[in-house]
Structure formats: C-alpha cells, structure tokens
Amino acid sequence: MEDEPTFPAFPYEPYSIQTDFMKALYRSLSKGGVSMLESPTGTGKTLSIICSALQWLVDRNHRLKSEANHAQKPGGGNGSDDEPDWMKNFVANKDAAVEDKMKKKPMFGRGKPDKGRNQGSCRNLLSPNFVEEGIHEKKDSENLRENNGVELNDEEFLMEEYESGEEEDAGAGKSKRKAGGVCINSSSGEEEEDDNEDDEEELKIYFCSRTHSQLSQFVKELRKTVFGNEMKVVSLGSRKIFCINEEVLKLGSSTYINERCLELQQNTKKEVSKLKNLGSGGRIRRTKASSGCPMLRNKKLQKQFRSEISQEGALDIEDLVHLGRRMGTCPYYGSRSIIPTAEIVVLPYQSLLSKSSRESLGLNLKNNIVIIDEAHNLADSLISMYDAKITSSQLEHVNSHIKQYLERFRNFLGPGNRRYIQTLLVITRAFLQILFNGKDTSLVDPGHDAEKAFGAKNALDSSMAINEFLFSLNIDNINLVKLLHYIKESNIIHKVSGYGNKVANLQKVSALNDSRESSEEGSILSGFRAFVDLLLSLTNNDGDGRIIISREKPASSGQEGGYLKYVMLTGEKIFSEIVDQAHAVILAGGTLQPIEETKERLFPQLTPDRFHFFSCSHIIPPESILPVALSHGPSGQSFDFSYSSRSSTIMMEELGLLLCNLVTVVPEGIVVFFSSFDYEGQVYDSWKASGILERIMKKKCIFREPRKNTDVELVLKEYKETIDKLSNTNQKEDHVPQNGAILLAVVGGKISEGINFSDGMGRCIVMVGLPYPSPSDIELLERVKHIEGLGVSNSSRSTKFSVGNEQHYSGDVQAGFAILRSCKHRGKEYYENLCMKAVNQSIGRAIRHINDYAAILLVDERYASDPSKRSLSHPTNKLPQWIKDRLVPVTGKYGEAHRLLHQFFKLNKKRGRQ
Prior knowledge:
The chain is an alpha/beta fold. The chain has 35 helices and 26 strands. Strands 6-9-5-10-17-1-18 form a 7-stranded parallel β-sheet. Strands 21-22-20-23-25-19-26 form a 7-stranded parallel β-sheet, with helices on both faces. Helix 16 packs antiparallel against helix 17, helix 16 (392-409) crosses helix 21 and helix 25 crosses helix 26 (677-690). The chain is globular, with a radius of gyration of 30 Å. The protein starts with 15 loop residues before the first helix and ends with a helix.
C-alpha cells in the first residue's frame, strides 16, 4: 500500500479540509484522468493546489531518480514493474527525443523550427502569435521590371506564382521557389546555434486561470512556499501586458499591438554574410537578421534575461515586465523562451485551451499535468474561443482591398493566383449579399437560394447550420480547405493589406503620425484575419456550430452594424485533445456544481475509472455566516424581480426601503448585485427621484460599478478607503452619521468575478432577483437548443425545435421565452445553471478567511418558497452546500429578517473583541 502523502511545504498549520483537498489532488495526479476538485472561495484553495501538486512532482522525481540508480546497479533490472505505464513512456519518450535531437540537421528554407508546432495547421494562421515563417526572397528587380512591367516600389506586393495540384491533399498547392532564393536567417552578432538546443524538456505542470491578476496571485502564493525558489517557473501572458516598446504600446488596442509586434518582426534587417554553393548549382544566401523591434535585436540580452529569471525564482508578470524594462529586452518573447526548461508554466486560459495558441507557443501536453482553476464556466469559455465573427464594415474593406489588388496586379498574376483571388471575391460578395439583404445592387448576386432563405423574411437575426449556409449562397462547390491552404502558403493577406495601406497612405493629404498609420494597418489586417477565421470555421462538422446572420439595426447611438458569426456549440472534441494528451487534467473551483452538465458537454465518453470528484465544506464556523432568503420587503410587498415585474416603481421602491433598513443594522460595507448595468441604472434613477437615495446616503456613501473595466480599480480603492476611514472614526466617536459604504455592482461584471470583499468590504451581500441571461440573445438560445438535444438524434432534434420564429429570430424577448419554454430537460437545466452559477460567484466574494463573517440576502420570493415543496431545480438547491446548509428562508414579514441580522452582527462584533 502507498504511503500517505505529506505536505511539509504548506507554510501554516493546515485545516483538516485543506489536508483532505491536498490528498485528493495528490491521488488524482497519481491515477491520471480528469478530476473536479471543489473548495469554497476563502479556504486557501490556491495554496493547497500548489503544495499538493508540487509535492507530487518532487516525490515523483525522487522516485524516478531512485529507480534509475537501482537500475544501474548489477542485477538492478530495467525499473519497477509497479511503475505506471505513462511514467515509463515519459522517460522513454524523453530519451528518444534527446537522441532524435542529436540527429537533427539545420533545415534549409526556414528559420529555426518552432518546437511543438504543427506546420500543417490552418489555425496557426489565425493565432495572434502567428509569425510569418518564410520571408520570401524577392526576384531580381531588373528581371521583374523587364518581364512584368511592375513599378519597382510595388514589387514587394506581387504574389509568387502558385501551382495547385489536383491531388486530394490540400498540401498539394505550393509557391514556386528556387534554391538560389532561399534565405537562412541567423541572429545578428550572435552564434548561429540555438541557445535552447540543449535544453531538456521537463515534466511540466501547466496552471491556468482566467485573468492575469489571478495568475499573479498564484505566483504570490507560490512564493510563500519553498517551491518558489526550488522550482523553475515561468509566467506567460498577452503582448499587451508584456510589451515594453512604448511606440507599440501607444496603439492601445490588443489587436493593434499584436499586429504591430508581428509586423516589426517581419521587417527584419538583413545583411548577406556569405554564399554557400549547393551541389545542384544553386546557391543559398546566408544572412544575419535583426528584428525591427529594438527590444529583440540583442540576442545576448535575451540570453541574459533567461539567466536572470533562473536566479530570481518565481516571478509574476509584473516582475518580468520590470526586469525586461531594466535590461532593455522583450519580456514577452523572453518568457516564452523559458518554456522548454520550466517545471511550472503559469498561463491564461486562452493560451492553453486554444489549439492554435498551444502550437504557436510550442506547448507540449503529452504526459504532462494540466490544472485549470476557476473552472466553473469552463465549457462556455472553451467553445467561445472557437467562435469567429466578421462585421459588415470589415467585409466591405476586405472586398474592396481584394478587388483593388486584383485590378492592379491582374496582368502579372499566374492563373493559380488569379483563380484563388477571384474565389475570395466571390465569397466576400456572397457574405455581403446576405448582410445587406440584396439592397446593394453593385454586389454580384450569389444566387436565388439566398433570396429564398433571406429575402422572404426580413428578420434582423437568423441562424443556419454550416451546410445550409453554404448551399444557400451557392458556394458549396468551393474547396475551403484548399483555399485556406492557399491563403497560408501565399501570404496573400499581408500582400493585399500591405498594398491597400500603401494606396490609402498615398491618398491622404496630410501625413499621419506613426501610431495612426499603424492603427489603420492593424484594422485592415484584422479584417482579413476575421474573414479567414470565419472561413476556417466553415470547415467544421455541420452539427458543431451555427452561423448567426445579424443585419444592421437601429441603436441608441445610431445604426448598429451587421455581422456574420460562427458560434461553436460543442466542446467535446476540443477538450478531448487536451485530455488524450495530458496525464492528468484537474478542474478546480469554488463552485463546480452541477458537475453532470460539465461532464456531458466536455467528456461524456470518459470511463468512470478515469473521472474523480472531490468537494469540501468551508473552514468558517456556522455562526460566521447568515444566508437569508427574503420574500417580502419592509412594507409587506412581496419581492418579484422577474422580467415582467422588476421595472415597476413599486418593486424598485420596496428594494430601496430594504436598503434604508439595512444601512441601520449592517456595519461597514454592503455590496448589492443587480442583473445588468441597465437595470442598476434604472433602480438608481428611481431612488434618486423618490428621495430614497438621499435617505440611504445619510448612513452610507454610495459607489457604483463603472462599465469600463479600467475604472473599476479606482472605484474599489475609494470604496475601501471610505469604509476604513469611517470604521476608524466610529471606534473613536459614538455618534457618527455615516457608518460605511454601499457598492452597487452587476452580476457578470468584473466585481462579481474576481474581486474579494474580505472583512469590512463585504459584511453583507445582497443578491437582487435571479439574474437569468437575456432570452433575446440568439447565441444563448442556440446553445440552449444544442444542449437540449444532446443525446437526441438529429431528426428528433429538428422536429423538437420547429418553433415558428426560431429560424428567423427578431431578438424579441417573448419569442426567446417561447423557445426556452419548449425546452424540458438539459436545455432548461443549462439556462437555470447559468443563472445560479452567476449567483454563486457573486455571493462567494465575501468570507475570505476563517475569522471573516458576512450576511447574504437572496432577495426574491422565488428563493424563499417552502422547503418541503421545492423541486430539484429549485434555485436554492443549486447553492453551494456550505451556504445551503445554513440558509434561513424568511417567508413572512421583513421584521424577522431584521431581527436575525441585528443578532448576527451583535454576536460577531462581540466575538471579534474577545
């Protein structure tokens, strides 16, 4: 029998639930497969993950070392028969990889190979990390001028001749290249060999979470343990977070920063260093190249950057940026270069869950460990990464730029290039025809089928399956796989957008500054990438997703443009790639229930022996939390915040009266969560007009969550400072008019997801109503219908949803409700789960440590129904166990709830003084 694991690295005396959690995680890593581990927020989950996972890694390394020593002794054999197969395979694969590395020779025609990258993947083209690998050697300018008659300054935009084979394989098409035109790049002023060539791949633990701040928190917790200095750790993040090039940072937008970064790397400065003869008579020009970005020119500094990190121990993103600035070298690419030797890779969701990002970063999941924190909405987060959207204005730009390019270079393009470029024009025109409903007569009519599908009903929004979409546009005969391969091989999006930018700049009367020019270029290139992304989505299986057609519609600020969007609906195949490669996948979170939905959507085929679940209670004593389901307000009015009733003046005023009472009994901070920014604004205006706002502010200052995420930090800072200041004043003086602050927040906003309201910042959390997502959201309805049909045959599914306005949906709320009412099983449960997951995330912001205390008010009669009459789908049955066990339903007068609150805070104030 295995020895019970111990966790000496845990920096404090662990609570029993923390020890149980660490043991469960340790066992899960040993067994492999998929595990869901639930530990309430405020129970030290992150620290428990670190100490358990890294202890497992240390123990495994010691065991491997011991077995290797044993094997070297006479009669030692080849290792233990008890060793898991995956561990033997890992060692064998590692040895084979080292041997294979020794045999590798430099590749002609490419730079250094991108480790772990699938060169054939079209997805790489769409990745923000995508870097054009082969900068094609230009033909001799004199020949070009003589043979083609193209002006010398337009020569860079001319396509190489492209041949498309008749073979089935999409890889048959290729540009014509000669040996004499091949260029091998080596870094300027440096040795030509790769600094990382001898780096050994270690078994890795990939830890990912949703935000950069959560990843920084992980590193801070890691530093509290001995592992912070003993393990090789690297933090990854976006270019926008890491970039230290001020000229690029000025662009502001993530998209523009990505585009400019990649463009600078393609603008390499090359000098011929020597010529090397090939046996066939061709010659290779060996060049030294330096990046166009000043932060990447000095390779010695990049090497020094890696060395500094290895000496510093665990660094978070801010530390890496500071180090990069101090040394004058890029921390984004510097951190990426450490991946091969790292034991712990800390990275955002997108970088690990998106296949294109994994390939671009060179992440190898084979036999490694993947830990996904904050996994409560993993299925929706995963599939949303594979959505693709292009707006009508982007499509118009793409169409006009392709047309402009074809007109300029038509006589100089070979038949292969001409055919593919004309095909792109046909597709862009067909897409525009849908969005403008045939209004623009200058566009080529894609066919009568489109008129049948879209002309009959002038709906603002509609949805279609992929095949139906392609057939209705008469573009079903186009081989999209070959077309995508052509786009990747020919580098056409850079050629066309580059030429378009040049023409646009020449037409400008006054010169624009660099940042404006770069933004213009970024927008053109972004449009092309969005177009290609949508094309790639159309190569998915017919049932994997839906195409949303949203036409131009009136909006408060003028006209809201139309768009085409592919909405991915199934995550099973995407997630199976991760599960099949990794040794163990851990999904951790504060509230993972209901787990059946996650299993059904992400790994339905997983056998029971490959799945493990663990959940623990909270560390706080029962008297530290008071959850109350409140059905009536102070004046006796029942609370009904359903869609049809919530906007009534009576309901908003009753809520205001509740707050007027709460500010007299709740000390310090109160956080009130509303279902949306619009409803929060409506309530605030109503309180202001009725005088309720003024009454509340006599006791507590009011703060409101801003719509812009960048402003949230400032509001939170002022909210906390106000509470601290008034709390200190109250301790000195008995009669102070104000006793804290109120923060009006929104479910699904930044405050509800990642902000902790410990101690005085969140003595009371008020949840107003049940925050169901809007039924007017067509994408949500498509997901609901898909989930309702899981396990149902396609024919049954189509019959089930023959709702009259389902195909052509106008965004009407009542029509959305009709579709939701037609769902009886999984779809209905999914819609309810979305609501309660949002509730659980919001109310979990309070209670962050064992000495913390808070009241939680669930304000709506639907929360407070008789417990004996509740069904399984009742809202309170979906609350976390530690809250559900202590919930007090107050179905009568408000006075009972007020008395409970008064006793609760009086008791905890007394406990705090002891």
